[in-house]
Amino acid sequence: MASASLQFFAFILALFGAFGDIAATLLPNWKVNADVGSNIITAITQMQGLWMDCTWYSTGMFSCTLKYSILSLPVYIQAARTTMVLSCILSAFGICITTVGMKCTKLGGDIGSKNHACFAGGVCFILAGIFGLIPTCWYTREIISSFLDQTIPESSKHEPGGAVYTGFISAGFLLIAGVIFCSSCFKRQQGAWIYPPKQHHFPSTEQESNAGYNLKDYV
């Protein structure tokens, strides 16, 4: 019962991580730059994401421009696109596989098959967390390095946006869920290997039955 509840808790964490991963991939606020200027009424907030750049005005106007050219983008944005998409795909695979292999579900066949499915789903979650953590760390490093660069003007400097923090938290959820799934399956398999099921033998009963059968033959 404890392992089933622990797996269910890990599955909820994986769901939050997968949804957060998808949201971080699509959100345009990976980098944010607020330019107030001389008048607060004409304040502009510039946001840059993996797929589009958006500008929000204090008057309520909002405009976005898609990044059509892939080769013109910096290397860290291209890498972030690839790894975040892979993270979303792996997390989706992990959810499908662990749904079959969880102890609280009636899918997946016997206990051994369910354990293998849970372990495979946990590996998918761990890989999804790693692929989600790499672009967020790299993107944050680029933001901080350009922010501390004295040659870049203040108007061109950015700060990490909400999508970066969402990516960090989602990657943490996926890593925790993957570790829980893998460790629970490993402990169960290790316990079965150390303590094999006992086989009960009844030699005395078999001998008595054979002896009775022989006595009947001689009567």
TrEMBL record:
Q: Domain of life here?
A: Eukaryota
Q: Which GO terms describe its molecular function?
A: structural molecule activity
Q: Does the keyword Ribosomal protein apply?
A: no
Membrane-protein topology: Multi-pass membrane protein
Write down any Gene Ontology CC term. plasma membrane
The answer to whether UniProt assigns keyword Ubl conjugation to this entry is no
Q: Which UniProt keywords apply?
A: Cell junction, Cell membrane, Membrane, Signal, Tight junction, Transmembrane, Transmembrane helix
Record-annotated membrane-spanning stretches: 84-105, 117-141, 161-182
Stretch forming the signal peptide: 1-24
Q: What subcellular compartments does it reside in?
A: Cell junction, Tight junction; Cell membrane
InterPro entries cross-referenced by the UniProt entry = Claudin, Claudin_CS, PMP22/EMP/MP20/Claudin
Q: Which family does it belong to?
A: Belongs to the claudin family.
Q: What does this protein do?
A: Claudins function as major constituents of the tight junction complexes that regulate the permeability of epithelia.
Protein name (record): Claudin
Source organism of the structure = Lanius ludovicianus (Loggerhead shrike)
